[in-house]
Amino acid sequence: MTALVRYGFSAPVQSLARYGFLDGSHRLFDYGCGRGDDVRGLTENGLSASGWDPYFAPDNTISSADIVNLGFVINVIEDFDERVEALTRAWSLAERVLVVSVMLENQNDPRGQRFRDGVMTLRGTFQKYFTQSGIKTFLEQVLDEEPIPVAPGVLYLFRDKDMEQRFLMDRYRSKHNRLRTPSTQQQERPKRQRRDRVAERYETYREPLEHLWAQWLALGRKPDKSEVEDLLTLTEGFGSAPKALRFLERRNGLAEIERAASRRVDDLEVYFALNQFERRRPYKHLERGLQRDIKSFFGDCRSAQASARELLFTIADTQTIEQACQHAAERGGPFL
Ligand SMILES: C[S@@+](CC[C@H](N)C(=O)[O-])C[C@H]1O[C@@H](n2cnc3c(N)ncnc32)[C@H](O)[C@@H]1O
User: What pTM value is reported for the model?
Assistant: First the structure.
């Protein structure tokens, strides 16, 4: 009875779309899928999704997936041990990330009789309303993992720590509208002929070149060979990825790239500075893309850390910094 008919995606699924997890490269399993509206909607969008529910879809297969959604399930379970069991099972199925969502306490809670640690509503359904910190603590205690709140009552737990780092990094990436570079005015004839050859070549490889340019702008640095999507086509057309990059550099100029690089340095500094405030355990290693970012923008980890520390002193007071250092010491050292 708690499973409502949905006329749109649930908040956790919307959050996944917002953060770019629904790009078709991840399989999703909806644990406690209710009437299955999220699964149906995702499948209609060409994504790989399936679900199971003890009441609505008990015969469906329970399977592991890159992303597991445990949406508004914990808060309808009366029994504490059953809550723990549902959470642990969903976590065991999550290969890369688990998304947990619960109803939060607010003034519009339906009235009902207190029952165990929740309420029995007038419709005869059980609801346990959590506070944001209450659900975070519950997840931490049961799974011994650090959940990341992404929206009210919606938290992510990453098994894939590289994905977690990338996610945290991208969260602080400023959002930019990407505009096409205005075309330049045509000048004298000989130059135009030369430019036409460049234009012809560009036309032939337009799609991979556009991808490469967009990626260069997004990273703020030259993408590494391993990061280039259309490596084969570009190598065929230009000899190598660096040569394709040089072609773009000559054609488009460096001004836009320089602006992108400086935005990216800002984003990275904010990311590293904010990391000092988190209680997160230090990562065993840095995600490869981040390693390249550090090398390209700061030279090495020490310089990145120094740069982030400088930023910290401009945004936080001494007491906050002291507390952050204490947290860092408790969890065994700072992020970098
Ligand atoms: C409020 S509905 C949410 C359904 C769906 N996830 C959504 O967001 O629309 C809660 C669902 O949890 C399911 N449920 C109850 N106990 C469960 C358990 N122990 N394990 C998994 N699902 C459970 C119920 O059958 C119900 O469909």
Answer: 0.72
Nearest to 264 by CA among 165, 197, 162, 176: 176
Distance CA 223, CA 228 (A): 6
Q: Which two tokens stand for residue 100?
A: 């947990």
Please write the tens of the pLDDT for every residue from 302-328.
Answer: 888 787 777 776 666 666 666 666 665
Ligand 1: list residues with CB < 6 Å: 2-3, 6, 10, 31-34, 53-56, 71-73, 76-77, 82, 86
Q: How far is ligand 1, taken at its centre, from the CA of residue 51, in Å?
A: 11
Q: What type of residue is 106?
A: N
* 195 C-alpha to ligand 1 centroid (Å): 62
CA of 157 to the centre of ligand 1 (A): 19
| CA 86–ligand 1 middle distance (angstroms) | 10
> pLDDT digit string (tens) for 17-65?
888 899 889 999 999 999 999 999 999 999 999 999 999 999 999 999 9
CA of 146 to the centre of ligand 1 (A): 23
- The predicted model gives 173-200 an average pLDDT of 54
CB within 8 Å of 169: residues ≥ 6 apart: 267, 268, 271, 287, 290
For 11-159, the fitting CATH number among 3.20.20.80, 3.30.420.40, 2.160.20.60, 3.40.50.150 is 3.40.50.150
Model confidence band, residue 146 (pLDDT cutoffs 50, 70, 90) = very high
The confidence score (pLDDT) of residue 335 equals: 42
* SS3 call for 158: strand
Mutate to test the pocket of ligand 1, among 33, 76, 92, 129 (most ligand atoms within 8 A of CB): 76
